[in-house]
Amino acid sequence: FGVDGCRTISQLWAELGRQDSYLRINSGRLYRVEEKIVLQLRWRHGSGRQVLVQVRHERPDGEVSERQKLVIKRKFREETWEAAVHRCLVEDLSLPKHFAKAMLLEKSGDP
After folding, report:
1. pTM, whole model, 2 decimals?
2. Structural element, H or E, at residue 105
3. Hey, how many other C-beta atoms are within 10 angstroms of the C-beta on 65?
4. Any residues with CB less than 8 A from the CB of 101 and at least 6 apart, and which?
5. How far is CA 34 from the centre of its chain?
6. d(C-alpha 33, C-alpha 17), whole Å
7. At what angle do helices 81-91 and 97-105 cross, to 10 degrees?
8. In what helix (H) or strand (E) does residue 57 lie, and over which residues does it extend?
9. What is the SS3 assignment for 110?
């Protein structure tokens, strides 16, 4: 634990306490499971379509990542994907709760 980029025991314990991941036993082996949602917001603009991408992310430790990617959020163990998306819209994109809820009601499978 805590070697070669792995979490220390205390970091793992904190992660489990926050429900960012959970442990599962499969065939006698212990696995750390982390579920994520990928948020793709699309809209029409003129004759084309637009997609929201994250271009910069600053971690709590100050490390900055600059690259274009879709918004990704960890899903808590007992959380539905809709609740995880709502939390992402409110916490990460700073949308008002009522607006985020309306967006979820308008979700579309339209490519």
Report:
1. 0.68
2. helix 97-105
3. 11
4. 86
5. 10
6. 14
7. 140
8. strand 57-58
9. coil
Integer Rg of the chain from CA: 17
**Which residue's structure tokens are 């599962």?**
24
Strands (E), 1-111: 22-26, 29-33, 35-39, 42-45, 48-51, 57-58, 64-65, 71-75
Residue from 28, 24, 35 nearest 77 by CA? 35
Give the position of tokens 């430790």.
Answer: 61
Structure tokens, 38: 């990928």
DSSP one-letter code for 109: -
Per residue of the chain (111 residues), what is the pLDDT tens digit?
667 778 888 989 998 998 888 899 999 999 989 999 998 888 888 888 888 888 988 888 889 989 899 988 889 988 999 999 999 999 988 889 998 888 888 765 555
